Amino acid sequence: MAGWLNVDVSGSDYDVDLASGRLPWRTNSVACVVSQHVIEHLELRTELLPLLSELGRVIRPGGEIWLSCPDIEKVCRSYLDHRMVDLLEDRQTRFPGYSLGEVPTSHMINDLFHQFGQHENLFDFELLEWALTSSGFDDVRRISEADLLARFPEFPERGDDLQSLYVRASLRS
Ligand SMILES: C[S@@+](CC[C@H](N)C(=O)[O-])C[C@H]1O[C@@H](n2cnc3c(N)ncnc32)[C@H](O)[C@@H]1O
Questions:
Q1: Alpha helix positions (H), 22-124
Q2: Among the atoms of ligand 1, which is closest to the Cα of residue 20?
Q3: Residue 36: CB within 6 Å of ligand 1?
Q4: 158 lines ligand 1 (CB under 6 A)
């Protein structure tokens, strides 16, 4: 993203292992963090909570955090109501090459939960709200992708509201 400090574990503007519990930035030096589909790669207690706590240190009071990740509630509802067909078709509109082949559509729930061993845990709003408020954030709100794009028009549209949880919060002043 032009105009942003893009962070990943390798190959980014600023490579950081977000699971390490330490961030290399000064206290109160960051105005805003946006993270899409990363927090589910971190183990809740040993990696994500320490990261959110560190973000609470580097983000200035009143600063913003905007997160998205797979929504466990939407995924489970899709499994129960549609055997994942709606989320499969939705993904195929965004990634036309995505296919489960001859495997029954219910297998897509395994893909969302595990993603080849990359996903540690999924979130619903209650769990993510708890993680954020436990780490010093407040005013946690469930939003949609449209809210994120209205705030940051430079971000590319993903069109993934059907499967994703979007949340914003502020650092407690
Ligand atoms: C599903 S991709 C999402 C990439 C991008 N944020 C997006 O929305 O398209 C997950 C990303 O999380 C990164 N990631 C996973 N574990 C990480 C860690 N411990 N530290 C930093 N980045 C990590 C991966 O390298 C990968 O780029």
A1: 49-58, 72-82, 85-94, 108-114
A2: 19
A3: yes
A4: no
Query: Does the beta carbon of 15 sit less than 6 angstroms from any atom of ligand 1?
Result: no
Ligand 1 closest atom vs CA 115: 1
Please report which residue ranges of the chain form alpha helices under DSSP H: 49-58, 72-82, 85-94, 108-114, 125-134, 145-151
Please tell me the distance from the alpha carbon of residue 43 to that of residue 160, in angstroms, as a whole number. 23
Which ligand 1 atom is nearest residue 19's CA? 19
Q: Is the CB of 34 under 6 A from ligand 1?
A: no
Starting at the edge strand found earlier in the chain, the sheet holding 137-143 runs: 30-36, 59-70, 164-171, 137-143
Triad 146, 72, 76: Cα angle to 5°: 115
- For the chain, the domains span 7-70+118-171
pLDDT tens-digit profile, the chain (173 residues): 999 999 999 999 999 999 999 999 999 999 999 999 999 999 999 999 999 999 999 999 999 999 999 999 999 999 999 999 999 999 999 999 999 999 999 999 999 999 999 999 999 999 999 999 999 999 999 999 999 999 999 999 999 999 999 999 999 99
CATH fold of 7-70+118-171 reads Rossmann fold (3.40.50)
